[in-house]
Amino acid sequence: MTPLSGTGVTPLAGVGTVQWYDPQVELSGVDASESIDPETELATFEQARDTARDELETERERTADRIGDAEAEVFEAHLGFLDDPQITEGVEETVEAGSTAQEAVAETFGSHIEQFESMEGRFAERAADLRDLRDRLLRILTDSDRVDLSELPDGTVLLAKDLAPSDTARLDPDAVAGIATVGGGRTSHSAIFARSLAIPAVVDVGEELSDIEDGTEVLVDGDAGTVVVDPESTPATEAATVEIRTEQVTTADGRAIEVAANVGTTDELAPAVERGADGVGLFRTEFLFLDRETPPTETEQYETYRAALDAFPTGRVVVRTLDAGGDKPIPYLDLPDEENPFLGARGIRLSLDENADLFETQLRALLRAGADGAGDLAVMFPMVATVAELDQVLTRVESVSDDLTSENIAHTVPELGVMIETPSAVFCAREFAERVQFLSIGTNDLTQYVMAASRGSEAVTDLHDPLHPAVLRAIDRTVREGHQGGAWVGVCGEMAGEPELTPLLVGLGVDELSMSAVTIPAVKAAVTAADSDATLIESVLASETREAVRDRLHLG
Ligand code: PEP
Ligand code: MG
Asked: Per-residue pLDDT tens for 472-492?
């Protein structure tokens, strides 16, 4: 069988035995002659709830030990739904109207799931949580076997149509040799999570993946983006074999480039240090706010930021303030319902308006941690589109600092930066750079907005590619204008973690690259080999198509 191609997510390879994961279960049919006794059905439902509660509590504890508290909170949200009166009363009423417990669960959850789905984007994650919980209850009620994602045997290759971020959180990276999915995208949050856990992964393989049966031996090669049935050997991927360098690296022509890690939780700090990160270039703080009932307190946040600063005593830690909205809904924030959340209230827009209190709490925690932690704190702001927004942000930082001074609380005003994620930010890069110390280009969103191609949509994956000349020209302009305005410029989107693109980004003048820890050694090696080749960069920027760009960069 020829290798199946998809999109490589983690540049590692693994061989193992296939286990399909399909959370769908078949309802047992009811014979028309059987009479349904509501009392028995209600007792059955209560028993299923108790079993589900026990399972969820065990999984929550196991995840907290194995991955981290933030990921464990996925299960907290499921426990909350299990006791939600809208759901339990809905099931009870449906049973009393003559349905079996199974039918009542399917129907009640179904209507809530539909409601969340109809709200689009921001609530999609809630719908996924409800689907997860419904499937758990139905599995218990129908007595079906289900693959327990947290207890997979060593050497499992997990195949699925798609995986929710909560599914990925449950995986034990020591047991799972690889993941491959029919759908999904490289910059989806589930893929970013697989990369953080250093699990070899390939997404968007297509329906051919479904032909591979349970028990088959396969190779998942995240480097090549392929799935191979009955492989002869495991290729030695660059990410697995390359030497780890803990020192800062310079290009062949002597330019120092900072190579930092993208993290979402404190559990990702030690792996980042181990793989030679100079610091953290993007701490996605929204992971601290997701899958819980209330926002983290100032103290909780302070401790998290302190941990990051203490993990890199001689490095820089760039923390991004809450980037909610878009594909990162946070239910308790009560955000407006919008037809197109990616173009609506998200990132800094929320922090300056609906979420001003949360923003102030986060700034207080950051300014305090910056004074006490070992490393150098830097704070950056997501989705800034206008100079006026940035001016408001800077005023808020100043006023939080004044408050802390008047309360006699030790604090520092850290280095500040702006993420460049929208065309508008590209055109205002000079003005931003004159006001802050650094710019960090978020190429995942920048590509989405420059190309008008959603980062999660399978229909436009060819357009969502940072190698389109328009995106490269946007990066080039940002670097030049940023430097002229006196700021250093980094890249923290997924393209920063692709070693074959390192010569391009370094050639464009970028000062810092930030990525998932797993790709740091390969990118450090690529930096040391890179030489500024002005002619190459000029010809890439003059290219008319992404195919011409790929040709000039000798990419296959
Ligand atoms: C980006 O948009 O490139 C980025 C780094 O932010 P996120 O992926 O969290 O949206
Ligand atoms: Mg972004």
From this structure: 999 999 999 999 999 999 999
Q: Work out which ligand 1 atom sits closest to the CA atom of 189.
A: 8
Show Cβ contacts of residue 433 under 8 Å, excluding neighbours closer than 6 positions.
439, 481, 482, 483, 484, 485, 486, 487
* 249-552: CATH architecture: Alpha-Beta Barrel (3.20)
What phi and psi values does residue 79 have, to the nearest 5 degrees? -65, -35
In this structure, the residues whose C-beta lies within 6 A of any atom of ligand 1 are 282, 284, 323, 421, 442-445, 492-493
Indicate the domain borders of the chain.
Answer: 4-21+147-237, 38-141, 249-552
Q: Is the dihedral of CA 348, 352, 353, 356 positive or negative?
A: positive
Whole-number pLDDT of residue 75: 81
215's tokens: 């028990």
- The structure's pTM equals 0.75
- Choosing among 3.40.50.1580, 3.90.180.10, 3.40.190.10, 1.10.274.10, the CATH entry for 38-141 is 1.10.274.10
d(CA 493, ligand 2 centre) in Å = 8
How many percent of the chain have pLDDT more than 90? 63
State which fold the 4-21+147-237 domain adopts. Glucose Oxidase; domain 1 (3.50.30)
pLDDT tens digits along 395-454 = 999 999 999 999 999 999 999 999 999 999 999 999 999 999 999 999 999 999 999 998
